[in-house]
Write a structure and sequence with these properties.
The chain is α/β, with parallel strands linked by helices. The protein has 23 helices and 16 strands. It is globular and about 80 Å long. The structure holds phosphoenolpyruvate and magnesium ion.
Length: 577
């Protein structure tokens, strides 16, 4: 009998295959007290398992297919680093010695303690990092318990790709499994920000996470259809359902193939308006991937990731190397954003001493933190300026809320340029310095800012948060997060208009720019530069190529002039049609 199950769809597409359950069940962890004479032997056994886990991960890292997005290797590196992290290994060894307990029990105890710390974190991204602690611990535990066969193994026979059903799938599992061919993933745990979800999206494998009891409800070998768009799984489907989903799958595959034809075509609307499509990236490796997916350059390189997952701050030389790599890797222009730390983006070493702010999103974050800690800012600016010698770079300042703030940052950049040149170093001439427009004050004062900034980039993720007064990471008020709110659309238009009147180019790099549902409306508001997750570039390009921008601009004027909310909503809902 057919059975519908639902979870959270985190990677789109339809997958059809037979269930293969991974990890026969949760690990049974024995606990026993050691004889004093056995303690050092137990410590050695633990280190042996840790070493073997590292070997396994290095081997898997070596199997990452060429051309795979950089984030894939980075996730394995995160696990390798964690295997060496003192908070994991030293604590386990200390527990074995002090509590005289076996290695498995000590590791379980430390895993649970670390997981509890991550669970307390406010930031959903950091909270979901507890998965990494669990994945790494499970790998060592399986080695200690000699249960490695619970891990995915290379399939030898050429069978149909299965639907993997598991409590959770680690990044390493995904790499191994995706090479063998997988129709879809269903996991009991995890959320849209988990590494499993991010990697599944990178590999284009339909995936549902958070489907509780999946391993109990789905039988080994049973046929199952996974709809990653809707987060539904249909077990034991009848012939009619199979036909329906096969057809949907074929349509999606044909659509993807048609999209890939657009890769090298310019994004020009039907009425001849050229639109720039750029990528948002976090690591230098992403730059290559972005170009493969049709992006013309990089509109936002978030530099925070250089500062994360480490002790201490990266020095000028390390940053210079990293920025030079990115600048050299990007074909086309690259906009690098200076450090945007604070609020939802925390690092161990960047946090200041002092009382915890009540409203971190309104506190000392981004450019405010950089101006308060000039050394932190100067080090990054010097590294950026030195890297400017290797390609076309723009510098973008986040969370600008006043002209004075922009000017102050600009002066630091000018002074650093002079100093570097005095030291005999090469710095490109005339590097454009621009402002992110992500605070309503900046949008409202855009005509004044335009006298100083060489470009604007609208950060809708924050602009929406600050305009509608809703914390972007607070799940309780998520339902109010509305990119189509009239206030948001007006601020976007105001910014674009200020740019048009003063000859300052305006881009958008918030999530809204990569959401195909909003492409026509943004074209209508006059946007000509979109920067987004590389995976969305082709879909957005197709819409642009089918659009008549002049007509969309007329429609957008009507939206902005709407006198009542009903009229506004009707116009927005029917936009572009
Ligand atoms: C934004 O706020 O829209 C943006 C692009 O920056 P981030 O999401 O990194 O804050
Ligand atoms: Mg932002």
């Amino acid at each position: 009998m057919s059975l519908w199950l639902s979870g959270i769809g985190v990677s789109r597409g339809i997958g059809i295959g037979r269930v293969q359950r991974l990890h026969g069940g949760d690990l049974e962890i024995p606990e026993y007290t050691l004889q004093p004479a056995d303690i050092e032997h137990e410590v050695t056994r633990f280190f042996g398992a840790q070493r073997r886990a590292k070997e396994q991960l290095r081997q898997i890292r070596g199997q990452i297919p060429g051309g795979a997005p950089g984030e894939i290797a980075a996730f394995i590196d995160t696990h390798l680093l964690m295997l060496d992290d003192r908070s994991l290994t030293e604590a386990v060894v200390a527990l074995i010695r002090s509590a005289q307990c076996n290695a498995e029990a000590a590791l379980k105890k430390q895993r649970d303690a670390l997981t509890a710390v991550f669970e307390q974190m406010e930031d959903p991204y950091l909270r979901s990092r507890k998965d990494d602690v669990q994945h790494v611990s499970a790998r060592i535990l399986r080695i200690l318990l000699k249960q490695e066969k619970g891990m995915p193994v290379q399939r030898t026979e050429q069978s149909e790709p299965p639907v993997i059903v598991a409590d959770d799938v680690t990044p390493a599992d995904i790499i191994l499994l995706s090479q063998q061919g997988v129709a879809a993933f269903i996991t009991e745990y995890g959320g849209p920000l988990s590494h499993t979800a991010i990697l599944a999206r990178s590999f284009g494998i339909p995936t549902i996470v958070g489907l509780h009891n999946a391993r109990r409800l789905l039988r080994e070998g049973e046929l199952v259809i996974v709809d990653g768009d809707l987060g539904h799984a249909l077990a034991d489907p009848d012939a009619q359902a199979q036909e329906f989903f096969q057809a949907k799958r074929q349509r999606q595959l044909a659509d993807r193939a048609a999209l890939s034809q657009l890769r090298d075509k310019p994004a020009i609307s039907r009425d001849g308006i050229k639109i720039k499509l750029l990528a948002n990236i976090e690591m230098s490796e992403d730059a290559v991937h972005a170009a493969d997916l049709g992006a013309e350059g990089v509109g936002l390189y978030r530099t925070e990731f250089l500062y994360m997952n480490r002790r201490g701050l990266p020095d000028e030389e390390e940053q210079y190397q990293a920025y030079s790599r990115v600048v050299a890797a990007v074909k086309g222009p690259i906009t690098i954003r200076t450090l945007d730390l604070g609020a939802d983006k925390q690092v161990d070493s960047g946090s200041r001493q002092g009382p915890t702010p009540n409203n971190p999103a309104l506190g000392l974050r981004a450019i405010r933190l950089c101006l308060k800690e000039p050394e932190l800012f100067r080090t990054q600016v010097r590294a950026l300026l030195r890297a400017s010698a290797h390609g076309a770079m723009q510098i973008m300042l986040p969370m600008i809320s006043s002209v004075q703030e922009f000017r102050q940052a600009q002066q630091i950049i000018v002074a650093a340029t002079e100093q570097l040149r005095a030291e005999g170093r090469t710095v490109a001439d005339n590097i454009p310095v621009g402002a992110m427009i992500e605070v309503p004050a900046a949008a409202l004062a855009a005509p004044l800012l335009a006298r100083h900034a060489r470009f604007f980039s609208i950060g809708t993720n924050d602009l929406i948060q600050y305009t509608l007064a809703i914390d972007r990471v607070d799940e309780e008020v998520n339902y109010l997060y509305d990119p189509l709110h009239p206030a948001v659309l007006r601020l976007i238009r105001m910014t674009i208009e200020a740019g048009e009147q003063s000859g300052v180019p305006v881009a958008m790099c918030g999530e809204m720019a990569g959401d195909p549902r909003h492409t026509r409306l943004l074209l209508g508001l006059g946007l000509t530069e979109f920067s987004m997750h590389p995976a969305s570039v082709l879909e957005v390009k197709r819409i642009i190529m089918e659009s008549n921008v002049a007509e969309l601009r007329r429609q957008a004027q009507r939206v902005l002039a709407a006198r009542g909310m009903r009229e506004f909503q009707d116009l927005v809902a029917g936009f572009g049609h």
